[in-house]
Structure formats: structure tokens, C-alpha cells
Amino acid sequence: MLEQHRLFEALLSNKPKLHYWGGEWNCGGLDNIKLRRLFELACQSVESATGTIIETGAGLSTLAFLAAKPRRLISIVPDRDLKKRIDAEAVKLSLSQDGHEFYIERSEYALPELARTSEPCIDVALIDGGHGMTTAFVDLCYINCLLKKGGYLALDDIHLHSVRQIYLLLQEQPSFELVNELGKLAIFRKNTSDRFLPDHMGQPFVARNSLSIDDLFKQSNATIAAIPNPVPAGLELGATIIIWNTGNGSKGDVHVSVDGGDEKLFFRGSKGSKPAAWIAAGSTYEFRLYEGLNRAKLLASVQVTRNK
Ligand SMILES: C[S@@+](CC[C@H](N)C(=O)[O-])C[C@H]1O[C@@H](n2cnc3c(N)ncnc32)[C@H](O)[C@@H]1O
Fold it and tell me: Is-contact 92 15, C-beta < 8 A?
């Protein structure tokens, strides 16, 4: 292990800028603390029978994994030039690439085939490729399929809404245990040999955040809007078009109140559009959409004014 540590410290003392983002070259988002933890996990993996590491996305993480002299490292990234830069740095740092498999394609293409044709063999996984919906979820699905019981799953960029949903899901999932949280990098250990997460009933995070069907229909999707608003200035009275929808097919009334005065019926219907061609500067016209025909429940409103 001494040699591995020497290689890793050499990498940290001269970190190459492998990524070009925001108009400049940079080292990527994994600082020394995060790289060290990934390196430690990689060193541990060498002791296991399968000794396999997988990562979506590549960069300094790849070099940190290589420093551990893994038996097998799978890197998946659709960027050929990045691979060339990693290869060049590996040579400079005397990092052997024996056992390194590089897939130059999107993880959405590479992972399903790997998952279908391989038994769970992964000891350490890093999800750090495409971070959007749905790439990160595809990575989770197939990497989970390949991850062994007792294997580690590192999730980078948990501050992003998409990745955070995975982080929150796994935090409540009995088959995963959060073992480290290093800023934006979370590391989980998998405690089952199940290849897939259970369906939604077996996912506490999903169950807790779901609506009943009744609640879904109680939610209001009602809208009312005026176009244009404010109404442009002019000599004559101005016009706007009021557009509304109760959102659930229920009957609706649109009433209007001028400068806080009594409401007058403007139009009746669950949805529609109608011009109001009497908008004067200096007044505020509030159009209110009610459910039912007796103003039973205010659903939405819009205030219309006119520029002077
Ligand atoms: C945040 S960087 C990875 C950083 C890397 N772990 C490091 O230590 O430098 C994200 C990488 O994911 C790659 N990427 C983007 N979409 C991807 C996808 N669908 N599959 C795999 N990699 C992807 C990008 O090319 C980029 O190199």
C-alpha cells in the first residue's frame, strides 16, 4: 500500500486541470478530502474478490482510483479528448492502466448492457457523470444493479435538485446506509444483494411525498391571467383579454372588482377567454375566478392596471 499512497500524494501535489468549464481549465469539483476518501475506498476494494470500481464521469477521480492500483476500473464518459488528457496524466504520474476499461459513450448506453451481462461485481461506484434528470437516475438504477452487498456508492453534487432526490431517496431506503457526507459528496453502503430498489410501496421517501388520489383532485390547478397586463397607455380606453380555467372541469364564475368596490359578474364558465375593453389608467381591476356559481370558493385572481 505504500506505493499506492506515494502515487496518490504525487497526484494531490500536482493536480492536473482536466476539465474546461466556464471559459477556463480546472481540476473539477472533487477537493483533496473527497479524493482521499475515494482513494481509500479504492484501496479497500483491492482486498475484495471482485475488486471492481465503476465511475460515470471521469477526471481526477479516475487518477485517484488508478493510484490505488485497482484490479478493475470502469470509467464511462462520452468525451474522447478527456480520455486522452487522463491517459497523458496517467503516464506522467506513472499510473498503470492495467485493468482500466474506458467506455467513451453516455452512461445511459453503456450501463444497461453492463448490468444485463454481468453479475453484481462492483465494490465502489462513483456517480458523477450527467447530473440532470434523468441521467443520474439511470446511473443509480444500473449501478445499483451491479453493486455488491457491502459495496459503496458515492454520489457527487448532492446540492443539485436532481442528485438530491437520489440522496434523499437512499437516505430513507433500508437497504442503504449513509456512511459519509463530505460536503457535496455523499457515500452510502449497500446492505442487500437486491439488484433493484423495491417498487414505490417499498420506498419510504416516495411513499412519504406522494399524494392520495383524492388529494390530487383537491389540489387546485386553477389559473386566471390577463394579456396584456399592464395594458399599454393610449387615448381611448384600453383592452386586455382575460383567460381562465378552473383546472378541474368544475363550473366557474369570473367576477371583477374595480378599485376594491363591489364585484360584478364578468363571465361564467369553467374555462374561456374574453376581452375587457374598458381598462382606464389610474384604476385597479381585480378579476377573481370562483369555483361553482355562487362564488363558493375563490380559486385564483389577477389584478389588471393600465400604464399612464
Ligand atoms: C463533474 S465531471 C466529472 C468529474 C470527475 N469525477 C472528476 O473527478 O474530475 C462530469 C463528467 O461527466 C461527463 N458526462 C456528462 N454526461 C454524461 C453521461 N450521460 N454519461 C457519462 N458521463 C457524462 C462529462 O463529460 C464530464 O466529464
Answer: no
